[in-house]
Amino acid sequence: MTKERIEKQNENYIPKAVASLEKCQTCPMGMSIHKGHELAGQQAVRSVVDDLVSVLFPGCHGSETVAPCKMKEHLQTQLVGTEERLQNQISSAWKYQCTVETCDNCEDCDGKALAAVKHLFDSLSSIKNILEYDIQAAYDGDPAARSTMEVVMSYPGVYAVIVHRLANVLYSQKVPLIPRIMAEYAHSLTGIDIHPGATIAKGFFIDHGTGVVIGETCVIGENVKLYQGVTLGARSFEKDDDGNPIKGIKRHPGVGDNVVIYAGATILGGNTFIGADSEIGGNVWLTHSVPPGSKVYNQQPHPLIKQDGRWTMMNGPKADFGAGI
Hints:
Strand content: 5-15%
Structural class: alpha/beta
CATH class of the largest domain: Mainly Alpha
Strand order of the largest sheet: 1-4-7-10-13
Radius of gyration: 24 Å
CATH superfamily of the largest domain: serine acetyltransferase, domain 1
Distance between the termini: 58 Å
């Protein structure tokens, strides 16, 4: 196809596509999307997450090593570069949210953004201290782990928790949009879905991780270990007189200290609480609370085995009902 012919075709369909896309900016798609033009793109928020993680673990989650003699300079550069970008992202997110909700003081979005970033930066030291417990829990809880460095640099469950602890601080400051984008970034990389509103104490470890879901109003105690495929979710949503889900109420379960929940377990409901020191077996379905020290398992299945043309029902092992690997 000649260059002239290509240019002629472009003249026909590209302007048409541009016109249709431009027109859609004023369509009533949920809310007035045109008012959100200044929102930071998803990749911009992800870039901030990468920089914050590299501040917490210099050289571990960046593109290059950081020499001890350069540590202060590295941290200073990263934080200065991150501060302005994150502040602008948060300010734009609040301005957009004012178009969604009734806002009493839209003029103060910049001030609220500055306060939120300051609070996050002031919290970085305490976040790192809590993460040290999480990392140690991962190392202690996985016989395959050969060092804490391996845990920090390669474990998806640990990475998801790192991002959650950052996003949770912003969520606690009622920052819209940004914490959820941060959480979904970690979700896309790890397969672990932790809502930024979930409250998670220190010493938390998600082993393997893929398919784990932790809802917004979950409250999880210290030294809790989850395996892959665990859901800490809601049952059904309470609705208002217009049939809309009621927001802001507790919908997800609580988990006490020193609890282990094995693969595929599903625990639902805002009134459901797993007592401390309990053990929940693989593929268990729970919609009610259990007292401290409980062991909850499904009845052991009896698989059929065919050998020499005959079927035999086998009694499975009774000692280990867990689903860890």
